[in-house]
C-alpha cells in the first residue's frame, strides 16, 4: 500500500524514461538528499547527538562516502561490464598521487582541478591495464589487473619523484580550498565529498541505462552474442575501464586529501582492492544502491561490533573484542551470501516487491 | 510489520553504539591507549600495551592518580593499521572531561596520518622511539614529541657504535654497511641519516628494502651474501626480525655483525629464531630488559591486587618496559603541566606545555624508580626529543645483556637534517615556525 504505484499514469515518453519512475522512490530519494545535505550538517551545527561530534563525520561518514564512490566505480567494471578487477587499490593510488603531484607542482590550480587530474590519470592507467581484457577473461583478467596493483605499489615506493622526495615516502596533502573557502572542519569536507558522490551516483545511473551501459551489460551477459549484434567489445570494455578507473581515481584522491591528509603507498595496498571487491559483491553486482549498502556493511559492521560489548555494558578486553569482531564479521558475510547470493541490493528489491503487495499479500 | 520494526530497532541500536558514550566523572584525566593486540604485529603490540596500562594503573592504585587527579584510560585496537588507527583517534579524542591528554600512535604510519590532525584538535602526539624524526624541531611541529629517541637518532647511534667497534669512526672508511629495512615509513626513515653519515665517514652504504610484512627475505640475503658487507643493520618490525636472523644464519652471516635497531631488539624478535639468534646485537632505546624499583612497585601495587594485564614474569621485558616508559613520560608531562595550570584535569593544549617543559633530572628519575633505565631528559621548544642517548645489547640465547656504556649521538650531522626537513614541511604546509627564543 505504501509502495503502490497504482494510479501513477505515465502520459509522455519522458515520464516513462524518468530516472525514478515511481513517485515514492522520487520522494524518498529527495528526502534522503535533504537529510544528507541539510539535516545532518544542521544537526551538527545545533549539537544534536550523535552528529555533534567530529567522530561521526571524520570516522564514519567521510570514509563511508569515499569508499562508496570507489565501490560505485568498481561496480561499473565488475557489476555492469563483467570484468573482474583486483587493481582498484592501484587506481585509487594513481588518483591520489596524481592529484598530489598536480597540487604540489602547480599550486596555482584550484584543488578541484587537482582532484579531477587524479581521475584523469587513473582513467588513462585503467585503459592501459584494461587492454589485456580484450584477450583474456574472468579470473585470468583478475590476475592481469593484479599486476597493476603490484606495479603501482612498487612505483610509488621506488620512484622518489612521485612522493616529492619525502624521506620516508609518506606525503602530505595540501589544504583543500574550494572557491576561496578553506575546508578544515570535517562537516565542510563531508559536504564537499557528499556533493561529489551524489553527482557521480546520478551520472553512473544515467550512464548505465543509456546506450553505453547497455553495451557493457551485453558484453557482461554474453560477449560473443554482443559482438554478433554489432557491439564493439574493444570500445565497450575500454570505456568501462576508463569510467570505472576515473571514478576510483577521484575516490582515491578524496581518500588522500579529504580523509587521511597524509598517506603512504601502503594505504592503497592489495587489501584495499580486496575490500572494494567484497563491498561490490556483498552489496550487489550491477546496482548503484548495492555499492552504498556493501560499503556500509564492510566498513560499519566491524566498527559497530567492536563497540557493541561496551554499549551493552559487558566490557571485554580489546583483544577479545577484536577477535570476536573478526569471527562475527566472517560469519555474517557467509550468512548473507547464503541467504542472498545476489547481495544486499537484491534484499532491498525483494523488500520493495513485498511492500507493493502489503498488507494483502494474496 | 514486525520484521521492519525489528530492523529499525536494530538500526537504532547500531547508531547508538556508534555515538561516543559520554563520561560523567569529573576529576579524571583521560589518556587514550591505541594498541594492537591482534594482527601481524600482535606479539610486539601486546607487551607494549601491557606495560603502558600497568603503569597508569600503578599511578592510580599507588598514588591515587596524578596529584589526586585519577587517570581514566581506554584501549582501542588498531591492529597496526592506519585506517583503524585514525578511527580510534577520532573515537577517543573527545573522551573524558577535558578530552584526550595526548596520543601514542605506536605506529609510524599512524603517526604520519595523525600529525595532520593533531594541530587542528590541539592534542599532542607522543612517539617514543618512532614516528617522524624531523618532529624534533618543535618550532614547526608544535604538537609532536618524539621523546627519548627517533629513527634518525637510532641511525646516528648505530654508526657511533659501529665506529667504536672498528676502533674509531675514522676506521669506518671503506667499510661496507647494508641497511636491511622494512619497506614502510618506519624502515625508510633512517636512510637519509645513513647516507649523510656515509658521506662524512666514507663507508659505502646500501639500503635493501624488504616488502612488508617481511617474512620472505631470501633474495635480499642472497644479495647480501654476494656483497659481503662488514655489517648489516636491521630495521624491521614484527615477524621480519626472526626471519632476518634465520636467513642470516642460513647464509652464514655472523650474527654479531648483524645490528638491529631498538624495535628489532625485543624477546619476540629473537626467541622464534632459537639458537640462531645467539650473539645478535641490537640498539637500545635507552632502556633494556631490566627491572628497577618501579617494577617492584608494579608487582606489589598492581599485580598484588590482581589488576595486572601481563604475567609477573613478563614484567620487565623490553617492549613491556617501552610501554611503561611511554606511560611514565606522559604522566610526568601531565604533572609538569599541573604545576602551571593547577591540579585538575588538563586539556591537550595544557599537556602540550607540560611536554615541552618536561625536565626529568637524575633525582627525579631516582624517585620514579627508573634511574637505571633512562638518562635524564629535558625537552624544550627547539628540542622535542629530550635526549639523544642509547646503548647496545646482545642476546645470549636466554637473555639480553648490555654490552656498551651510554653513547651520546653526535648532533652535528643530525641537527641540520632535522632543520632542513622541518623547514620543507613548514613551507609545504604554509606553517610559520614559532620563534623559540621569544616564548
Automatic annotation (TrEMBL), chain A:
GO terms for cellular component: plasma membrane. The keyword Cell membrane applies. CDD domains: TM_PBP1_LivM_like (cd06581). InterPro entries: ABC_transp_permease (IPR001851), LivM-like (IPR043428). It is a multi-pass membrane protein. It is found in: Cell membrane. The keyword Lyase does not apply. The chain crosses the membrane at residues 27-49, 55-77, 84-103, 109-131, 138-157, 190-208, 238-258, 278-305, 326-348. Keywords: Cell membrane, Membrane, Transmembrane, Transmembrane helix. GO terms for molecular function: branched-chain amino acid transmembrane transporter activity. It comes from the Bacteria. This is Branched-chain amino acid ABC transporter permease.
UniProtKB/TrEMBL annotation, chain B:
Keywords: Signal. CDD domains: PBP1_ABC_ligand_binding-like. Residues 1-24 form the signal peptide. SUPFAM superfamilies: Periplasmic binding protein-like I. The keyword Signal applies. It comes from the Bacteria. Residues 30-396 form the Leucine-binding protein domain. PANTHER family: BLR6548 PROTEIN. Belongs to the leucine-binding protein family. This is ABC transporter substrate-binding protein. It comes from Rhodoplanes serenus.
Amino acid at each position: 500500500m505504501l509502495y503502490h504505484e497504482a494510479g501513477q499514469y505515465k502520459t509522455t515518453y519522458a515520464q516513462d524514461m524518468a530516472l525514478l519512475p515511481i513517485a515514492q522512490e522520487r520522494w524518498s530519494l529527495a528526502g534522503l538528499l535533504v537529510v544528507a545535505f541539510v539535516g545532518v550538517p544542521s544537526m551538527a551545527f545545533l549539537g544534536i547527538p550523535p552528529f555533534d561530534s567530529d567522530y561521526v563525520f571524520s570516522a564514519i561518514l567521510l570514509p563511508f562516502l569515499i569508499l562508496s564512490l570507489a565501490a560505485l566505480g568498481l561496480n561499473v567494471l565488475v557489476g555492469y561490464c563483467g570484468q573482474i578487477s583486483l587493481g582498484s587499490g592501484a587506481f585509487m593510488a594513481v588518483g591520489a598521487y596524481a592529484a598530489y603531484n598536480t597540487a604540489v607542482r602547480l599550486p596555482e590550480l584550484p584543488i578541484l582541478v587537482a582532484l579531477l587530474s587524479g581521475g584523469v590519470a587513473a582513467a588513462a592507467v585503467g585503459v592501459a591495464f584494461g587492454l589485456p581484457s580484450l584477450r583474456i577473461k574472468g579470473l585470468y583478467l583478475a590476475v592481469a589487473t593484479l599486476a597493476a596493483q603490484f606495479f603501482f605499489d612498487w612505483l610509488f615506493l621506488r620512484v622518489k619523484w612521485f612522493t616529492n622526495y619525502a624521506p620516508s615516502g609518506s606525503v602530505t596533502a595540501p589544504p583543500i580550498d574550494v572557491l576561496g573557502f578553506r575546508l578544515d572542519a570535517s562537516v565542510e569536507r563531508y559536504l564537499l565529498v557528499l556533493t561529489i558522490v551524489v553527482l557521480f551516483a546520478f551520472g553512473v545511473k544515467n550512464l548505465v541505462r543509456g546506450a553505453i551501459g547497455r553495451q557493457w551489460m551485453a558484453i557482461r551477459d554474453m560477449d560473443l552474442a554482443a559482438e554478433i549484434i554489432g557491439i564493439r567489445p574493444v570500445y565497450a570494455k575500454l570505456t568501462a575501464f576508463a569510467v570505472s578507473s576515473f571514478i576510483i581515481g577521484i575516490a582515491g584522491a578524496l581518500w588522500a586529501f579529504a580523509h587521511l591528509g597524509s598517506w603512504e603507498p601502503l594505504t592503497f595496498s592489495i587489501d584495499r582492492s580486496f575490500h572494494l571487491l567484497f563491498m561490490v559483491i556483498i552489496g550487489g553486482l550491477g546496482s548503484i544502491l548495492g555499492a552504498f549498502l556493501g560499503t556500509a556493511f564492510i566498513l560499519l559492521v566491524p566498527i559497530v561490533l567492536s563497540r557493541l560489548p561496551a554499549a551493552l555494558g559487558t566490557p571485554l578486553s580489546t583483544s577479545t573484542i577484536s577477535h570476536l569482531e573478526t569471527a562475527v564479521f566472517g560469519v555474517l558475510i557467509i550468512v548473507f551470501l547464503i541467504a542472498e547470493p545476489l547481495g544486499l541490493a537484491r534484499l532491498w528489491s525483494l523488500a520493495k516487491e513485498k511492500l507493493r503487495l502489503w498488507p494483502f499479500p494474496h | 510489520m514486525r520484521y521492519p520494526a525489528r530492523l529499525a530497532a536494530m538500526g537504532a541500536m547500531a547508531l547508538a553504539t556508534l555515538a561516543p558514550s559520554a563520561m560523567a566523572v569529573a576529576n579524571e584525566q583521560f589518556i587514550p591507549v591505541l594498541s594492537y593486540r591482534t594482527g601481524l604485529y600482535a606479539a610486539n603490540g601486546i607487551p607494549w600495551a601491557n606495560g603502558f596500562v600497568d603503569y597508569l594503573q600503578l599511578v592510580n592504585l599507588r598514588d591515587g592518580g596524578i596529584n589526586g587527579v585519577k587517570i581514566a584510560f581506554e584501549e582501542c585496537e588498531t591492529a597496526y593499521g592506519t585506517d583503524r588507527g585514525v578511527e580510534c583517534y577520532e573515537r577517543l579524542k573527545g573522551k573524558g572531561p577535558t578530552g584526550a591528554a595526548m596520543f601514542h600512535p605506536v605506529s609510524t604510519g599512524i603517526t604520519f596520518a595523525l600529525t595532520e590532525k593533531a594541530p587542528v584538535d590541539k592534542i599532542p602526539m607522543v612517539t617514543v622511539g618512532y614516528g617522524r624524526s624531523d618532529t624534533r624541531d618543535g618550532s614547526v611541529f608544535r604538537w609532536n614529541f618524539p621523546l627519548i629517541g627517533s629513527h634518525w637518532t637510532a641511525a646516528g647511534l648505530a654508526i657511533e657504535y659501529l665506529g667504536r667497534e672498528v676502533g674509531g669512526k675514522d676506521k669506518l672508511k671503506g667499510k661496507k654497511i647494508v641497511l636491511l629495512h622494512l619497506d614502510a615509513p618506519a624502515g625508510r626513515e633512517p636512510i637519509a641519516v645513513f647516507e649523510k653519515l656515509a658521506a662524512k665517514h666514507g663507508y659505502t652504504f646500501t639500503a635493501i628494502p624488504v616488502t612488508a610484512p617481511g617474512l620472505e627475505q631470501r633474495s635480499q640475503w642472497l644479495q647480501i651474501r654476494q656483497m659481503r658487507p662488514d655489517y648489516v643493520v636491521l630495521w624491521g618490525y614484527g615477524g621480519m626480525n626472526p626471519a632476518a636472523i634465520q636467513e642470516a644464519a642460513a647464509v652464514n652471516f655472523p650474527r654479531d655483525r648483524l645490528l638491529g635497531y631498538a624495535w628489532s631488539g625485543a624477546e619476540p624478535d629473537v626467541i622464534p629464531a632459537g639458537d640462531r639468534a645467539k650473539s645478535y646485537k641490537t640498539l637500545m632505546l635507552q632502556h633494556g630488559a631490566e627491572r628497577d624499583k618501579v617494577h617492584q612497585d608494579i608487582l606489589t601495587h598492581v599485580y598484588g591486587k590482581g589488576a595486572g594485564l601481563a604475567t609477573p614474569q613478563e614484567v620487565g621485558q623490553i617492549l613491556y618496559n617501552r610501554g611503561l616508559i611511554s606511560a611514565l613520560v606522559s604522566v610526568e608531562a601531565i604533572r609538569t603541566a599541573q604545576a602551571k595550570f593547577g591540579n585538575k584535569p588538563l586539556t591537550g593544549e595544557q599537556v602540550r606545555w607540560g611536554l615541552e617543559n618536561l625536565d626529568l633530572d637524575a633525582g627525579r628519575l631516582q624517585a620514579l624508580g627508573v634511574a637505571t633505565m633512562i638518562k635524564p631528559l629535558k625537552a624544550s621548544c627547539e628540542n622535542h626529543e629530550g635526549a639523544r642517548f642509547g646503548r647496545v645489547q646482545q642476546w645470549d640465547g636466554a637473555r639480553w645483556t648490555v654490552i656498551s656504556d651510554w653513547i651520546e649521538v653526535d648532533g652535528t650531522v643530525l641537527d641540520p637534517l632535522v632543520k632542513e626537513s622541518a623547514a620543507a614541511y613548514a613551507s609545504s604546509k604554509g606553517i610559520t615556525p614559532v620563534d623559540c627564543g621569544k616564548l
